[in-house]
Specification:
Number of strands of chain A: 14
Mean pLDDT of chain B: 84
Low-confidence stretches of chain A: none
Order of helices and strands of chain A: HHEEHEEHEEHEEHEHEEHEHHHHEEHH
Low-confidence stretches of chain B: none
Distance between the termini of chain B: 30 Å
Largest sheet of chain B: 10 strands, mixed
Order of helices and strands of chain B: HHEHEEHHEEHEEHEHEHEHHHHHH
Oligomer: heterodimer
Largest sheet of chain A: 10 strands, mixed
Largest interface: A-B, 72 and 64 residues
Structural class of chain A: alpha+beta
Number of strands of chain B: 10
Shape of chain A: elongated
């Protein structure tokens, strides 16, 4: 066995440049696939994390009849006494934060500009709202008893030409199906680096939002963050007996999961094509090597080497080539991925849609998992080996007598 | 040159198998590009077809500076809207040009509230070209005399739980920085099969919009419908000089995310395609290196016969390029087969309508095009990569000393 590998190594070394280029083809292919896989993973994990942090949370507690698509504010669709419900949820061990939120649809006007907005009434002190507080780029965050302040996103402020301290006129739907309108002062401007969210969402303190929409002491949902999202099931079980509807992050973000599945489906096709091309390049090199060494194979056979051993020798060659190419590819791939992991890839506002269920940062950070690396490496190795079978069989099948006589 | 081509052509078929394998690699690469291109343009077509249905025209004309505020729907009136209509209708490709008022607003009922685009239209003129008008499923379409009535989509009616005759509150904005709050009666419901899009657009008569937004006799947009799709660019070019001071834009301007998404995706794919074709190019490189080595004596002979090193290089570069071009041919066949297959079955994307505004415009299965839109560019890339791949072997071949090469065993 060791002899075989030694021979294979020497054979590969006979034409170093050719061997290098074949390995390079495999390396480029593998590096490209690692990059693609890390992008998809980064995009999807990023979308899931961002959506959970900003929009869905790990769990939401709502009234049974609440329909998210309507942003209803009828009292019977809301949770009464939300602070108490939130406190009850927060008392469970796995819960990191539970905070009431009120959703309303609104219409903001300032100067000559108007735009539809999504109003969220929040408890400014809750830990659940840390992403917005930390994203504050000018002015101050809201306080619970602020009656005139509003927090808006940077893209909205930019489009409407507004700064902290400016006035904005906000209309919102109310519990009785009417619309109420009131001027607000912009306390602060936030950015979560997620254009779709920042453009659409404005924040009011919960108390003020309730007053504006005539929903005293009611909230649309209890937004729950857990210490570990794997514990969602346990928390759901603990709250099961309550009269509320419980929505988990997987249910609320079904779209992201579906998108990821679709992307992965396409990726498999892409992997196979790229590795198929890589494999043909390697097959060709090895086939040429077989023909170049026709006489040599004849001699080996003539001195008693069995067909199976000859085949094994060529398979050893393709395995070594595969190992070399894969190592080179891993190095190359990791370097490129490392760049995109730290600097990211700016995609801009391509998911920019108000009220989208799919939130993602403006920049995608590549994320290469060990699992992806291992499976891609394995696929690349197997495909290269399969490609090596053909030249190996060709070599093994040669008739010693004819091979010996073959023209150089 | 012709002689070289003939020589190169014969040379590449001397070892049929290895050439065919590389041709397959190139072909696979190109076929994949064609599949991608086909899918993208299938997307584009599906969105395009529906976008102009929703927007009511392929081309929109606004007052100057409007597009920089796209999404805000400013109530900036056109200074001479009748003149714009006349100018547009003067173009032979134009089927209709209608005046509109476009603004943002909020509709609200006890069931819930939605941010919408409020579109004031000239009902009679739009009837022939507005798909919403042609797909009324309950009640009736608008008339010019209508006041206080609105025409909504099925998606919105379902979500708000309203039917014909119900009243809903409409909030919009007038030009004088006040909000206008008006209770309106639903007169009719249209169905375009795109619930997410229908939720976003309601229609009122132009007259009603003018009184609601203090735009007496004015309008903010002229929507132009062409007789045939695909002539937008030429019509826009013809209209721009006639309408100085106006923004003349195609439907794409209304979907900046779509344009950005397509650009990003295509940019990434272009880079990937070069890498993938580069891998296949390595195949050509190896093949030719081998050929140079095998044909050492032959190269010596050519040198002895008086071929200059440059001419010998040329021969090898031609061989590489020819292999690439045969690969293009194989790729076209493969790509057409691939796309032909997907054109039969189509791809279902309707589940993703919530992802972005433009995805909401996809109402049925996507059928990829044949993928030949970018073929010339892709083929050229293959040819260039093949020629570059042949460069190292060609230089090698040219370096041979005829006398030594002839003696090579």
């Amino acid at each position: 066995m060791i002899k075989l590998i030694k021979m294979a190594l020497r054979d590969l070394g006979r034409n170093r440049r050719r061997t290098f280029f074949s390995a390079l083809a495999l390396a480029l292919g593998l590096a490209l696939l690692l990059l693609m896989a890390s992008f998809i993973r980064g995009e999807m994990d990023g979308a899931m994390d961002t959506t959970i942090r900003l929009q869905s949370g790990h769990l939401q507690v709502r009234a049974q009849s609440y329909d998210e698509s309507k942003t209803s504010l009828k009292w019977e669709d809301l949770i009464e006494d939300p602070d108490q419900v939130a406190a009850q949820v927060a008392s469970l061990a796995p819960v990191k934060a539970a905070s009431p939120r009120l959703f309303a649809t609104g219409f903001a006007a300032a100067g000559n500009h108007t735009t539809g907005v999504r109003i969220i009434g929040i408890d400014p002190l809750s830990e659940a709202n840390a992403p917005y507080r930390e994203g504050l780029i000018s002015g101050d965050f809201l306080t619970p008893d602020d009656r005139e302040g509003i927090l808006i996103g940077r893209p909205l402020a930019d489009k409407m030409g507004l700064n902290a301290g400016d006035q904005i006129l906000l209309s919102a739907n109310t519990s009785d199906g009417d619309v109420s309108e009131q001027p607000f002062t912009i306390r602060g401007i936030y950015s979560t680096q997620t254009s779709a969210f920042d453009t659409a969402v404005v924040f009011l303190p919960l108390g003020k939002a309730q007053a504006l929409t005539k929903t005293e002491n009611h909230a649309s949902t209890i937004f729950v963050l857990l210490n570990d999202k794997e514990q969602t099931g346990a928390v759901v079980a603990a709250l099961q007996s309550s009269n509320y509807a419980l929505l988990t992050w997987t249910e609320m973000n079904d779209l992201i999961i579906q998108t990821e599945n679709m992307a992965n489906g396409f990726m498999v096709l892409f992997y196979l094509i790229v590795l198929g091309i890589t494999a043909t390049v390697i097959v060709n090199t090895l086939v040429m090597a077989v023909f170049e060494r026709t006489r040599e194979i004849g001699i080996l056979a003539a001195i008693g080497m069995k067909g199976r051993r000859i085949m094994a020798m060529f398979l050893a060659e393709s395995s070594l080539l595969a190992v070399g190419g894969i190592l080179l590819g891993l190095v190359l791939g990791y370097l490129i991925v490392a760049y995109f992991t730290s600097y990211g890839f700016y995609i801009g506002d391509i998911y920019g849609s108000s009220g989208s269920d799919f939130l993602i940062y403006d920049t995608i950070y590549a994320k290469l998992t060990l699992g992806d690396t291992a499976s891609l490496t394995l696929i690349a190795f197997v495909i290269t080996l399969l490609a090596g079978l053909y030249p190996a069989v060709l070599a093994a099948r040669m008739e010693p007598v004819e091979a010996l006589r073959a023209e150089k | 040159m012709k002689l070289y081509l003939r020589l190169a052509w014969r040379n590449i078929w001397r070892h049929r198998r290895r050439t065919l394998i590389i041709v397959l690699a190139m072909g696979l690469g190109l076929a994949m590009m064609m599949f991608y291109d086909g899918l993208m343009s299938g997307f584009d077509q599906a969105i395009y077809g529906n976008a102009i249905k929703v927007l009511g025209g392929n081309i929109q004309i606004h007052a100057g500076g409007y597009s920089s505020e796209a999404g805000q729907d400013p109530l900036t009136p056109l200074s001479d809207d009748q003149g714009v209509v006349t100018a547009a209708l003067a173009q032979p490709q134009v089927l209709a040009a209608t005046r509109r008022i476009n603004t943002g607003g909020l509709v609200s009922s006890r069931e819930g509230a939605f941010a919408v685009s409020i579109v004031g239209i000239e009902p009679e003129k739009e009837l022939a070209v507005n798909l919403a008008a042609q797909n009324v499923i309950a009640g009736r379409y608008l008339t010019a005399e209508d006041g206080d009535v609105i025409f909504v989509g099925k998606g919105l009616a379902d979500a708000m739980g309203v039917t014909v005759g119900d009243r809903i509150t409409l909030v919009g904005r007038s030009t004088h920085e006040q909000t206008r709050n008006r209770t309106m009666t639903v007169t009719g419901i249209y169905d375009l099969g795109m619930p997410d899009v229908e939720k976003g657009t309601i229609y009122i008569s132009l007259g009603e919009a003018q009184s609601l937004y203090d735009l007496n006799g004015q309008s903010t947009e002229v929507a132009v419908v062409l007789k045939q799709l695909g002539q937008e660019a030429s019509v826009i070019r013809a209209l721009q000089p006639v309408l100085p001071g106006y923004d003349v834009e195609s439907w794409r301007t209304n979907f900046p995310e779509l344009v950005a998404a397509m650009e990003t995706k295509n940019g990434v794919m272009d880079i990937f395609s070069i890498i993938i074709l580069g891998i296949a190019g390595i195949g050509i490189l190896n093949l030719l290196l081998m050929a140079v080595y095998e044909r050492t004596r032959e190269i010596g002979l050519l040198g002895a016969l008086g071929l200059k090193p440059r001419q010998i290089s040329l021969l090898f570069i031609l061989e590489g390029t020819l292999i690439g071009l045969v690969g293009v041919a194989a790729g076209i066949v493969l790509g057409l087969l691939f796309n032909g297959l997907f054109r039969q079955v189509g791809l279902d994307y309707t589940a993703f309508s919530g992802v972005t505004d433009f995805m909401a415009l996809i109402s049925e299965r996507i059928y990829p095009s044949w993928g030949v839109e970018k073929l010339p560019g892709r083929a050229l890339t293959v040819a260039i990569i093949s020629a570059l791949a042949a460069f190292i072997p060609a230089r090698e071949a040219a370096r041979h000393e005829p006398a030594e090469a002839l003696h090579h065993v």
